[in-house]
Specification:
Layout: H1 6-27, E1 30-31, E2 37-44, H2 47-50, E3 57-62, E4 65-69, E5 77-80, E6 86-106, E7 115-117, E8 121-136, E9 148-167, E10 181-195, E11 200-210, E12 224-233
Antiparallel strand pairs: 1-9, 2-3, 2-6, 3-4, 4-5, 6-7, 6-8, 6-12, 8-9, 9-10, 10-11, 11-12
Length: about 240
């Protein structure tokens, strides 16, 4: 039953939901400490850091101070992060992940339309990872306080793995002798990954190879598919 107070309650619920969503988004990618290592400076409001835009720089964070060095063996130059500081740093590294693919989208193949397969699939991923670190301080930043750090990771690479596929007469041109079973497949392909530390998700494209006598008749043998993947970072 609706009352005169219902619109107000609805607005309150919407405001609370929006606030929760914004708070969740703000936490995505937040980190406490900048990893020590080599970086590319993409942009910085600090002239001392901006001077390294054309060469790699080794950085180490000490609370509100960054220690800058041309190499890991040279004497570091301290940079105190003052108010309204903003920098974007890039780090590259080799990436190894284990993924699951909740579903695969297979293009239409006669006599079947587009298929959404949800059988178990897993893969080992090898690729290149790019981490974009955003370092910033608020307008009311106080000396001794650490800056706000966010990390957004993007990766690209190749994968190989094992999975299952439903095999029946419809997908084998009526050639299978068994009414229906789950066949073993191996898959290979490429993937794009987004990792904000809170979650790890990506898009994959690949092809399957079915093991067993029905591989000659399987209509999806070596045919491309698209899928969504979720992963666990191993390094």
């Amino acid at each position: 039953m609706l009352t005169s107070a219902t619109p107000g309650l609805l607005r309150l619920c919407l405001c609370l939901a929006a606030g929760y969503a914004l708070a969740s988004c703000a936490a995505v990618g937040r980190i406490e400490q900048l990893p020590t290592g080599r970086y590319r400076v993409l942009r910085s409001t600090a002239p001392a850091l901006q001077a390294y835009r054309k060469q790699p720089v080794y950085l180490h964070q000490d609370t509100d101070t960054l220690l800058l060095a041309a190499t890991d063996s040279t004497i570091a130059q301290p940079l105190l992060l003052t108010r309204r500081h903003s920098s974007v740093l890039l780090s590259r590294r080799f990436d190894v992940d284990v993924f699951t693919l909740p579903f695969k989208i297979r293009p239409a193949r006669a006599p079947l339309p587009v298929q959404l397969n949800t059988s178990f699939n897993a893969a080992l991923y090898l690729g290149r990872r790019l981490d974009f670190y955003h370092v910033s301080t608020p307008a009311r930043h106080r000396s001794g306080n650490a800056p706000v750090l966010r990390d957004t990771g993007i990766g690209y690479g190749v994968f190989v793995g094992l999975g299952a596929a439903v095999i029946n007469p419809d997908v084998t041109r009526q050639q299978t002798a068994v009414a229906e079973y789950e066949g073993l497949v191996t898959h290979v392909g490429g993937a794009l990954i987004y990792d904000a530390r809170v979650f790890n998700v990506g898009l994959a494209a690949g092809a399957d190879h079915l093991f067993g006598p029905d591989r000659r008749h399987w209509i999806y043998q070596h045919r491309p598919w698209l899928g969504v993947l979720f992963g666990l970072d191993l390094n």
